[in-house]
Amino acid sequence: MSADEIKYNKAQARFLRAYYYWLLLRKYGPVPILPDEGLDYTMEYDDLAVARSTYEECAEFIASEMALAAQDLPVDMPNSREVARPTRGAALAVRARAYLYAASPLFNGNKDAWALKLVDDTGKPLLNLEYKEELWAKAAAAAQEVIDLDKYRLHTVPVRETDESASHPKTITPPPHEIYSREDYPNGWKNIDPFESYRQVFNGALSVYNNEELIFSRGLNTNTEDIKTMVLHQVPRSMNGWNTHGVTLKHTNTYYMNNGDDFYAYGKEDPRIDRPDYKFTENSEDHRPLHEGVSLEYADREPRFYASIAYNGSVWEYENAPENENLRNKQVFYYRGGQDGRLSSAPGFYLRTGIGVKKILSST
Fold it and tell me: Which is the most buried residue in 44, 195, 251, 320, by most CB within 10 A?
């Protein structure tokens, strides 16, 4: 290996060690930090034992190691095959997150009963009992280092004036706003498609290598439970899926209305009071992107809702499905007795909540 390759591999190893410390800290709280020179594993257990470090000491160790690793890690990976390897941005982002957690009131100045019990074998507190304002400054400065790389940003897609295809319809214009409707992104939405910008990040159309929102990702490095199998769980039975992964109504109703207001079923905080008769769309232009026969409960919601939620009567684009199987741009209903609803002949293959989820569909 060349000198540069040696430095690069050392930086990756340093990153991985610090990253696993970070995972341990998140899962178990303060952990022992082993000495750099290592330990003689043939020694007695009592001699090998290392006391737990405090939360702040763990965070400082992780942050300092990530800063060192960042010096010799590249800003960009040379090709898509190495997309899951750590970059400079990944190291600096973990550093910022470690500082952020250390500054949190959970670990900074926390004196509740459980925090007071978190001590080592000598009675030394493992959390900061006295609040330290400077920890927030460290977290902010570390986050600024990531921002200053000028590499990461929200993914956007240009506005579409006309329908390109059934899977790529013209832009659904957000409700008028005196500022945002007139300004180009990032000061407004005049020149972007909010729906498609969000959808491409989560439906698999945007490759990991080209996703400017990702800082550190495993990419598509999966084993037996691979991406295709994960998608298969959520795809309707009429599209050759298992139709078993869904979301709750409570989760669904956390999505906002298109104007930013909270969602209330039928406009009421308690939809059980004076509940009106069900009303449904009569054509696909009434409340885009709803198609015919869909409950108006799903009308006029924010773009993230339509990109992620498989509501009753939603359309599954499934662009990679074979054209001759009529599985593209298919409207799916989850009514009991229907192919995608609950069937006595296939008791396990139905959405328990009646509401599905669309994720990574275009990657299969």
Answer: 195
What is the rounded CA–CA span in Å between residue 127 and residue 29?
A: 9
Per-residue confidence band for 128, with pLDDT thresholds at 50, 70 and 90: very high
CA distance 41 to 188: 60
Cα–Cα distance measured from residue 302 to residue 260, given in angstroms and rounded to the nearest whole number: 7
The model carries a pTM of: 0.81
- Output the pLDDT for position 206: 85
Of the candidates 127, 106, 2, 153, the one whose C-alpha atom is nearest the C-alpha of residue 55 is 127
Rounded to 10°, the helix 3-28/55-71 angle is 160
Give the three-class secondary structure for 279. coil
- Cα separation, 350 vs 74, in Å, equals 46
The SS3 call for residue 344 is coil
Which residue in 94, 63, 95, 92 sits closest to 75, CA to CA?
92
Cβ atoms of 253 and 311 within 8 Å: the answer is no
- Average confidence score pLDDT of the chain: 89
Maximum Cα–Cα distance for the chain, whole Å? 77
| Residue 62: both structure tokens together | 């992780």
Give pLDDT, residue 301.
Answer: 92
Q: CA–CA separation, 236 vs 240, rounded Å?
A: 7
**What is the predicted pLDDT for the residue at 222?**
52
Q: Is the pLDDT of residue 169 over 90?
A: no
Closest by Cα among 199, 200, 195 to 174: 195
Q: Where are the alpha helices (DSSP H) in the chain?
A: 3-28, 45-48, 55-71, 88-103, 113-117, 134-148, 194-202, 227-234, 249-252, 303-308
Q: What pLDDT sits at residue 124?
A: 94
Alpha-carbon distance 16 to 86, whole Å? 8
For 255-268, the pLDDT digits (tens) are: 999 888 888 765 56
Tell me the C-alpha distance between 351 and 336, whole Å.
10
How confident is the model at residue 58, as a pLDDT?
98
CA 172-178-183 angle, 5° bins: 70
- Separation of alpha carbons 48 and 34, rounded Å: 10
